[in-house]
Structure formats: structure tokens, C-alpha cells
Amino acid sequence: MPDLSTLLAQVFTGLVLGMIYVLLAIGLSLIFGLMTVVNFAHGALFMLGAYFGVFLLAYTKSFWIALLVAPLMVGVLGLLMERFLIRRLYGRSPDDPLLLTFGLSLILVEGVKVIWGKIGLTLDPPRALAGAVNLGFMAFPAYRLFLIVVIVAVLIGLYFFLGRTNIGLIIRAGSRDPLMVRALGIDLSRVWLLVFGIGSALAGLAGILAGPMRGAYAEMGVTMVIESFVVIVVGGMGSLLGAVVAGLLIGQVVGITTLFLPKAADIMVFVVMAVVLLVRPSGLFGEAGLLE
Amino acid sequence: MSALRSLAGWVAAHPVLTFWAFFAVFPFLVPNRSLATQVLIFGLFALGFNLLYGYTGLLSFGHAAYYGLGAYGTGIALAKLHVGSLWIGLAAGLLLAAGGGAIIGFLCLRRRGIYFAMLTLAFAQLLYFVGFHLSDWTGGDDGLRGIPQLTLGLGPWKYSLESTLGFYYFSYVLVGLAVAALKRILDSPFGAVLQAIRENSSRAVACGYDVDRVKHLSFVFSAGFAGLAGALDALRLSVVPIESLYWTTSGQVVMMTLLGGAGTFFGPFVGAATYLILEERLSLFTESWPIVIGAIFSAFVLFLPRGIWGTLIGGIHGRQSA
Q: Which CATH number goes with the domain that contains B18?
């Protein structure tokens, strides 16, 4: 039986992982909610966030600039993808955008290998966050605490953006009844662009934040996007609260299982999903039949 | 062009005969014979995928699971359990895949629409990790090695699978039987219900069909075909790489089927041949051949959703059954 401080450390590690899942799942969920597009390339955008981070850090020598600019670059790439490729598929089967983004993801992953090589790169955290923070009962890497704070701040910001601003209102209305929103004279195509950009930027942010912990490598996004799908299935698609709760839950499941049965950690994620499917097929916070 | 059309029309009307005739000479039409066998095996894999996606309208992004179960089932039976018969080995792979399809299909069909694709992908990833960690049985990361080359026996008759051509014709017969079985399934009332579900699921429900059961059965059949393909590939390579369960394998079969033409009878074979020949040619020039294939695939989704064969026979997607 591991002692209490090991367990607590693992809970925190799970929390960090869970936060990254939340960020990815919310981006996916936003895009899906408005456009019924399941963006397979979300994982590739996550990976690009980390690579852009490495690139910007080498150029500007400042982690803070990289942290700000890398997600913006990924966001712009997302905008371009929506505007020039994915938009052509609206009105066709929802399978088609998934297939297209699968193809795009293949191009991005292999493209990164051409540009940056097949071997993974490291991303150094800023010196100010290099040490550990004593939490009283245990010491925890400062960078990971910083990551938690940043993501919580982004989530709060997103909550107010969606809940309290006019654009947020349009986004929410657009995911509920796009026809009605259009009838009210609102140009939804610009909202699509915006939401795809925001969702992609969130993936990029998750990527650069994860970079200092796991480095940057071309395949890093694929397992993450599959696990984010699991988070969405568990939380209930279209539910932002569901994405948060399920992301944190899956993070804890991985964290705790790693401690007791390391080999089963990858597997437990999917076992949780199977159990949720059996007990509550529409997900923890999903409405049955919504967006199906 | 019109001669080509009428040929395509004849092919569409007699798919099983066409298969036997065309693939009898196929190894002599391609530059290398092992490629011919690969086209047969991956064509069969895509055929199984197409039953679910093209005919039932369910997009599985996790068909590596059944292909891999078929490969490991046969591989483990022959290499670890030392069953002496090739037939039992093949049956083990087929049954394991169909059984896995029954369980996973049941879980995935609890959610409809786009969730279905995400769930199939997730469960395939689960099996990948299981295969990765159960290394006593699967060889883990190194793959399952030591699958013996057995001679085929049917009563007094013996047939060696050692030569490339010998193995090709062995696969030819099995895949041909699978093609005939698929044709039989599609022509049956059950096959008609499958296509009714693809066209309009709620109407099929209203007509009184047990849509969930039909979908589940289609999933199991599809998994069985994919499993037989995996089993054959295990014999061909005499090793099962762990990648056979990986998502890339699922993606490969999706791309093959769409390139060829989903919902068409020969699309899967056309797509498998196109993909494999492209891969072989492109990898001579560049390591980054997946970029080119990814771009071609994306262009097909955008501009040519009926695929090569579907465009050639010119039928409306869904109307054309051959």
C-alpha cells in the first residue's frame, strides 16, 4: 500500500493530465456543438501547439511569448481549415468532416516529421517555474501548478465568454437551433469560423502547455484525441460541464491506476467508458438523443 | 468510355463471376506477386468494412480490432497452442474476430450517429493496449513470431503454401468464397434491410424491422470478414505485428474503401489495389508517402465521394448494389 503523500502526488499528477483532457474536450465539444463536426485533426493541432512552442521558444527565447503566440498560430490554421476545406462538407453526412479531418491529420503529422524530423524535441519550461513548490504536505513541480492555474483561468474566461457576451449567446443559440439564428439575420458562417478558431487555439494551448512535460513528437496527438473522444462520450457531447467533470475523472482514473497497476492505466480509460455506456449511454451530463 | 461503361455494367451484374475470372490472372498483371496477395487480403478486409459503412451506413473507425483479433487468433492457435491444422487456426481467428465484434458492436451500438465512429475507435485502441501488455500471448511490441508454415491438407490432398503463387491461390479460393458469401448476404432480405437502414433508419423502424438487431448482425458479419483477412495475413507474414491492432490499420481500411468507392461491390478491391500500388510506388521516392496518400484521400472526400469504382459505374451512391 503506497503511503499518503505518494497517493496525493499521484492525485495531483492525475489532475494535471485531467486538465489537459478538459481543454481538448472543450474545444472538440464546442466545434461539434455548433457544426456537428468531429474534428479528428484536433490531436494534430494539439501536437502542432507543442511544435510551434519549440519553434517560437528557439526564436524569441521567451516561453511567455511562445505560450501566447503558439495557440494563436494553431487557431489561425484552424480558421483556414474551416474556411477552405471543412466548410464545403456542411450539409453532407456528419461522417464526411470526420473522414476529411482524418486525412488532414495524416498530412499534418507526416508534414511535421519532414520539417522537424522524426525524433521528438524537448521544450524547456521557463526558469521561474523550474523548481518545486512546497504545498505543506508535499512538494510539487511549480510548472504543473502553473499549468493548472492557466487552464482554470482559461476555463473561467470561456465560461464568461459563452455565458455573458453577445457572441457567446449567438454561439449557444447557434448550436441549439441554427435555422432560427439565421432567420434572425445573423451571419452564422462568421461564427463557425470564430468557434473553429477558438477550438483549435485551445488544442494548441493544451499542446504547448503539455510540451514541457512530455516534449514534442509527431504522434503525441493521436492517443490524446482518442482519449478526448472517450472524455466526450463519458461526459456527454455538447455538455461543457460534462467535458470538465469527465476530463478530471479520466485524469484521476489514469493517475490512480498508474500507482496501483501501471500496466492497466491505458486500459482503464476505456473500461470507464464501457461502464458509462452500459449504465448511462448518453453520458454523465448528456441529454439522450441530443445531436445524434 | 461507353465500352468501359458497358463492361462495368456487366461486372456489376455478375460480381462473383468477375471476381473468379479477374483474380485468376491478377498475379500476372501486377509487377510483383506478393502485392497481388496483399490486394486480395486487404480487399477482403475492406469488403468487411464496406458491409458496415457502405451498406449499413455505420462508420467504424476501429476495424483494426477485428483484423487484429483474426490475426492474433490464428497466430496464437498455431504458434502458442500448436494446433496442427491450418483450418482450425483460421477458424480460431475468424471466430475470435466475430466474437469480439459481437461484444464491441453491442456496446458501440448503444450510441448512434457520429458517436459510433468515436466508440469503435476507442474500443480498438483498448484492444491495442491489451495486445501490447499481454506479451506472453501476443509478443507485445515485438509482435507474435514463430507462426509455423503448415501444409494444407484436405483428406489425401496436400497443397504447399510456401511459394508466393501457392499462397496467392489459397487466398484466392478463400477470399472468393467470402465474396460469394457477401453477395449472398446482400441479396437476401436481410441485405435489403441493411440498405434500407442506411437510406432511412427511422423508416426501417416504422416498417417493423428490428433495426438494432440487424445493425448488430451486420457488425458481426463485418468483423468476421475483417477477421478472416487478418488470419490470412498472419499466415502470409508468419508474424503478427502489434500495428495490426493500431488505429493506423483502421485508418488504412477506411481510406482504401473510400478511394475505391464505399457502397459498391468492387470498390474495396479497387481501393485496396490503388492504395497498395500507390504506397509501393511512392515509398520508392519518399519516406513521407503518407502525406501524398492523405492529400489524395482528402481530395476524394471533398470532390469524389463516390470513389474510383463508384464514379466509374456512374450509379448514384446507395442505388448501385454492385
A: 1.10.3470
Instruction: Check residue B320 and give its pLDDT.
Output: 42
String of DSSP letters for B225-289: HHHHHHHHHHHHHSSB-GGGGSHHHHHHHHHHHHHH-TTSSSHHHHHHHHHHHHHHHHHHH-TTH
pLDDT mean across residues, chain A: 91
Q: How many domains does chain B have?
A: 1
Best to test chain A binding among B110, B114, B123 (most A CBs inside 10 Å): B114
For B11-72, strand residue ranges (E) read none
Residue B1 domain-assigned (yes or no): no
In a domain, B212, yes or no: yes
Residues from chain B contacting residue A277 (CB–CB below 8 Å): 107, 110-111, 119
Question: B150: domain range?
Answer: 7-313
Query: How do the domains of chain A map onto residue ranges?
Result: 4-218
pTM for the model stands at 0.93
B-facing residues of A in 204-233 (CB < 8 A) are 222-223, 226, 229-230, 232-233
| Rounded percentage of chain A residues whose pLDDT exceeds 70 | 97
Inter-CA distances, B71 with A14, A91, B76, B97, B144, Å: 35, 39, 8, 9, 10
Q: What is the pLDDT of residue A288?
A: 53
> DSSP secondary-structure letter at B159?
E
pLDDT of B314 over the 90 cut: no
pLDDT of residue B1: 59
For residue B41, pLDDT beyond 70? yes
Comparing CA positions, the residue from B71, B50, B22, B35 lying closest to residue B229 is B71
Which residues in chain B are contacts of A107 at CB distance < 8 A? 290-291, 294-295, 298
| pLDDT band per the 50, 70, 90 thresholds, residue B160 | confident
Residue B47 lies in a domain: yes
Query: Which of B117, B125, B126 lies closest to A98 in CB terms?
Result: B117
Chain B interface includes A130 (CB < 8 A): no
pLDDT band at B210 (very low <50, low <70, confident <90, very high): very high
- Smallest Cα–Cα separation from B78: which of B135, B150, B143, B170? B150
